[in-house]
Design goal:
The protein has 3 helices and 3 strands, in the order H-E-E-E-H-H. With about 110 residues, it is of the alpha+beta class. A hairpin with a 6-residue loop joins strand 1 and strand 2. The protein starts with a helix and ends with a helix.
Length: about 110
């Protein structure tokens, strides 16, 4: 190996080292992202399912204000998860059905 050859090789070796470092860093980023995604999937799987029905209470906790579906976008601050039977019973006992999510329609109840 003469001097000209080694002086051309040196910057190429340097470039190779830089690119190997870059590649290692990119692979670390990929591994980090894959780990985050796996954690996200586990978190989603563990999240309890949204309640199907909600019963909204008034300031006085014994007072029921409205019945909502679990998907209601405006269930009020004091809505608590309820079973289908509880939602039906509340509607039958004159608790108003929310006018936005219409749980009475969802339950097939004429109020
Ligand atoms: Zn509602």
């Amino acid at each position: 190996m003469n001097d000209t050859e080694s002086s051309r090789l040196a910057p190429l070796r340097f470039l190779e080292r830089v690119q190997e470092r870059d590649l290692a860093r990119t692979r670390r980023w990929i591994a980090d992202e894959e780990r985050r995604e796996a954690e996200r999937r586990v978190g989603e799987a563990r999240r309890p399912p949204a309640p199907e029905w909600l019963i909204e209470r008034g300031l006085d906790r014994n007072n029921t204000v409205a019945v909502h579906t679990g998907e209601c976008w405006d269930p009020g601050k004091r809505a608590k998860p309820a079973t289908r039977a509880q939602a039906i019973e509340a509607l039958r006992h004159q608790v108003p059905a929310c006018s936005k999510c219409r749980p009475d329609t969802a339950l097939g109840i004429e109020v």
